[in-house]
Design brief:
170 residues, alpha/beta, Rossmann fold, 5 strands
């Protein structure tokens, strides 16, 4: 990628945001932040109880994410960023360029991954609410789409190629 830009690795639960985001950050020699660490305790409690977050729960969290880019523009953050309005809130708060790497995969693959992981606060019961809320980034947004049905290194390679192409087109 050319120039300075923040990267959000986005998608629904279990798509690999943290894993792909941290590896992408390593490959780009950028710091990585798991956006889940910025959730207030009340949000985590709701999710652990299987209660989907509403917009009012998410707005302060999304603003914190945007503020991180304002402080450190060259940063990779894992964040669901499910709706276009959420992504716009991050961009508006950041004051810098932000590109979204949307990780995509089948519901079956996501369920398989959720069943394999341990110690995460997001229960399987919330996957369908996230899939229903997801607004896939469209052509008006600074986003690339990367399929997750591949080994981790291949997914990261694909993301890097798509980011390079996107940067060359800018």
């Amino acid at each position: 990628m050319k120039g300075s830009a923040g990267i959000i690795v986005m998608g629904v639960s279990a798509c690999g945001k943290s894993t792909i985001g941290s590896r992408l950050a390593d490959r780009l020699s950028l710091p990585f932040l798991d956006g889940d660490t910025l959730h207030p305790p009340g949000n985590v409690e709701k999710m652990e109880a299987g209660i989907p977050l509403g917009d009012s729960d998410r707005w302060p969290w999304l603003e914190k994410i945007g503020e991180r880019f304002a402080d450190t523009p060259d940063l990779v953050i894992a964040c669901s960023a499910l709706k276009k309005a959420y992504r716009q809130r991050i961009v508006d708060k950041s004051g810098t360029d932000v590109v979204f790497v949307h990780l995509t995969g089948s519901r079956e693959l996501l369920v398989e991954r959720m069943n394999e992981r341990t110690g995460h606060f997001m229960p399987l019961s919330l996957l369908d609410s996230q899939l229903a809320a997801l607004e896939v980034p469209d052509a008006s947004e600074n986003a690339v789409h990367v399929n997750i049905d591949a080994p981790v290194d291949s997914i990261v390679d694909s993301a890097l190629r798509k980011l390079e192409i996107r940067g060359a087109q800018s």
